[in-house]
Specification:
Distance between the termini: 133 Å
Largest sheet: 8 strands, antiparallel
Structural class: alpha+beta
Order of helices and strands: HEEEEEEHEEEEHE
Radius of gyration: 45 Å
Strand content: 25-35%
Length: 229
């Protein structure tokens, strides 16, 4: 009887150890699933060149008789000028040599808005000038063929880095008019082979619409002049 009781006790004591065999070791851990970080795509570096998408400056071809109002940009191979707001313009002559855009004659009439022309800008390679003095004489020759008017060469004036000779020509009693001229020249190349004559004329006083050279809009236009070699 005692043997049976002892055998039962031994069996009862073995059950806890059997259960303990199912307990995982402290070192054996179940991996915890972690949420993967969202996939990121590196932003490629920009390959755009600065200014690449900017539209090029619009170029316009001009011809004699073209008219417009400021603000307007007019240019060719010899010069460029901006007609400011408040002034009208009409292209009187626009001639470019077919074989070289740096040769030609260009004349632009400028007036106050709605008025008749009173200022003319002339840029031409058709004259023979090599100094400010010869530019002033050419100005007188072209604007007083008969020599009946009174012509006076005045002081030099510099505007935006360009020096002009001032010339005043006054008519006689039968045609009482006083015009002011700025005359200058430059070369189209460093060797001084090709000269360009520049003349700006204004009606200072007379029977027609007057637009003085000292008018702020006229001065603004002159300041915008650029001459190209």
């Amino acid at each position: 009887m005692k043997k049976i009781i002892i055998l039962v006790l031994v069996l009862l004591m073995m059950f806890p150890f059997a259960a303990c065999g199912d307990i995982p070791s402290e070192k054996e851990t179940t991996p915890v699933e972690t949420e993967a970080p969202p996939e990121t795509t590196a932003k490629p570096e920009s390959t755009e060149t600065p200014g690449e998408n900017e539209e090029p400056e619009e170029t316009t071809s001009f011809a004699s008789g073209d008219k417009g109002t400021g603000e307007a940009f007019i240019s060719n191979g010899l010069f460029s000028v901006t007609i400011p707001e408040g002034l009208d313009y009409e292209i009187y002559t626009w001639y470019t040599a077919e074989d070289n855009e740096k040769f030609g004659t260009y004349e632009i009439d400028i007036a106050e808005k709605g008025e008749s022309s009173a200022v003319r800008l002339t840029v031409t390679t058709q004259r023979m000038v090599d100094s400010l003095e010869s530019a002033a004489k050419e100005c007188i020759r072209m604007n007083d063929f008969s020599g009946a008017k009174t012509a006076t060469i005045g002081a030099d004036i510099t505007i935006n880095g360009v020096t002009y000779k001032t010339v005043t020509i006054t008519g006689d009693e039968s045609y009482d008019e006083t015009n002011m001229y700025y005359a200058t020249f430059y070369y189209t190349n460093a060797d001084g082979d090709n000269d360009v004559y520049v003349e700006i004329s204004s009606t200072e006083a007379g029977p027609f619409t007057n637009l003085s050279m000292e008018n702020p809009l006229v001065q603004k236009m002159i300041e915008s002049l650029k001459f190209y070699q």
